[in-house]
Amino acid sequence: MSADSVPSDPSSHDDVDPTGLAAGKQAEGTMDTGANEPIERSGLHHWRESTITDPDLNDRGGVFFAAIEMTRMPMILTDPNLDDNPIVFANKAFLDLTGYEEEEILGRNCRFLQGSQTDRNAVAELRHAVENKSAVALELLNYRRDGTPFWNAVFVGPVYDTGGTLRYFFASQLDVTRRRNTEQSYRQAQKMESIGQLTAGLAHDFNNLLQVVNGNLELVATAKDPARAQRYVAAAQSAAERGAKLTRQLLAFARKTRLEPRPLDLTQLVSEFSDLIESSVNKQVEIHLSLRRGLAPVVVDPDQLEMALLNIVNNARDAMPDGGLVTIATRPLKLQPVENGDGTGGTALRDGVELAAGDYVVLEVQDEGHGMSPEVIERATEPFFTTKGVGSGTGLGLAMASGFVRQSGGRLEIESRPGEGTTVRMLFPSGHAEKREPAAPEPHVAASAIVDPDTARHILVVEDSDEVLAIAREILESAGYHVSTAANGEQALRLFDEIHPRDRVDLLFTDLVMPGGMNGLVLADAVVERDASVSVLMTTGYNEELVINGPRARATDVLSKPYRRAELLDRVSQALNRRGERGSRRRRSDFGAAQV
Ligand SMILES: Cc1cc2nc3c(=O)[nH]c(=O)nc-3n(C[C@H](O)[C@H](O)[C@H](O)COP(=O)(O)O)c2cc1C
Ligand SMILES: Nc1ncnc2c1ncn2[C@@H]1O[C@H](COP(=O)(O)OP(=O)(O)OP(=O)(O)O)[C@@H](O)[C@H]1O
Ligand SMILES: [Mg+2]
């Protein structure tokens, strides 16, 4: 370690002791590197580095020395001019903190306090500070002599002599284990509370829906009048639809939605939605559009964006029971490397997401409603958090919107003050529009047509849930298809090998996520490898697999659950029509990565 170059000139030290014997550079509100000060705030007076006239360590007669030995704050000095910067002085509190005797530590570098669980990044920060002769304050895990770990809030700063030579490093330590543990259990408790709230919310909403479905089915079972039975069935179906919408919102919140992103102009998209938006608010609410032309494209899923925007506009409507103005705006935004301020000074939520500097497009919804308190802003994007009465809000609107925006690589921001309206912003990254082929328009084939039994196509249905399998089979058979079934990938492949040679399988209809070694993607690849002319349709409740494994199956290959009868029949006949045309072109990777 070289100690002769001086990074900051000690003669510039502003705080000179009245005796003229020592001087220091004051903190003046700056935080030390590491920003974890033992005094929990940026101080004004304390010195971050100092200059001394008397470097003698053996002058121990004064009251200051007594103070150092009496304080409960551990302190040490190290000598950077000796090999490996060893400890040359340790006060009594340091011995008490660490459990060592003085002679065991003098002459040793402080790293003996570190151990297996010590964060190497924190150690590197200390090393850099020592190398740069700069002050640093941070917390890291250290170990006492008897091996027990403790969280150490350590401050290190340089001490120069009047010639500008670095003579010592001073350090103070503090055991902050109790505070860290409290913080951790608090966070854990908060997490448990959120999970409890989520579960309770889900249970509540699904119980209601199940009640409606079951109740109506029971009524159907005993109904004598067909018209009545129809009504019961319709009521049950509509409750099931609401359940499906609930899970869609939840999946969006969990960022597990199968997105179909396309490069889009947000301005154009919002213009297209404007009728729908108008119709979702009441007459007293006026919608004003302020849309910038010529925006860079953003890559988003238009259906999800529509849902997110509607959720946000509906919130604006709800916040203005007596009417008012809602302004929907689009504009470009450049994020600088370091973000400063939130622009308007209102309380803001950035949804905990750090975005890379660069070009973004903002879609903003501003209302003149009752606004939100900081506590509400803080929790607004939590699923099932609602301030609306029972039955009027599920608390999934902003959860969905924020999950969707995040999954699209952006961030949701909320700015609001009670009584002063609310601005909700969705930021989407622009520019890198790696263009995905727009899905080819599908020839539409009427779904309800019954298949001619003579030419009945053979479908292999693979699904691990018995009930779902039974329904798929029922729907397909009732439409005249010839159906074989398997409960998992391995079974399906065995069955395929056995029946295909004599009873040709025209379509593989498989669940994507299945237990066992073989998921839908792997199965599809194996089947297509055996006979490339077999069509494939996959189905899934969400497709984490595809998202994780990169290349996405084409939209036309995957049917989302829950699906309706007409949808299934539509997609099956489309898949069958694609036969041959695709088989020869399909490569292994067409379904995404094939490992599980
Ligand atoms: C004055 C001073 C006090 C230090 N106090 C501690 C300490 O309490 N705990 C610790 O883990 N490291 C402490 N260190 C850091 C280590 O001594 C050492 O600088 C760090 O481990 C990085 O260097 P290395 O990568 O060579 O180990 C201190 C360093 C100095 C200069
Ligand atoms: N524009 C707004 N003005 C004032 N408060 C808002 C606004 N948007 C959201 N909030 C607050 O955030 C809460 C959560 O909003 P969110 O959209 O997630 O759920 P919700 O509107 O209560 O229910 P849901 O949208 O599922 O019907 C709301 O209950 C409300 O307190
Ligand atoms: Mg809402």
From TrEMBL:
Every PAC domain range: 134-188
UniProt feature, compositional bias: Low complexity: 1-10
Biased composition range(s): Basic and acidic residues: 38-51
UniProt-listed SMART domains: HATPase_c, HisKA, PAC, REC
Stretches of the chain forming a coiled coil according to its record: none
Catalytic activity from the UniProt record: ATP + protein L-histidine = ADP + protein N-phospho-L-histidine
Protein name per UniProt: histidine kinase
Origin species: Sphingomonas citri
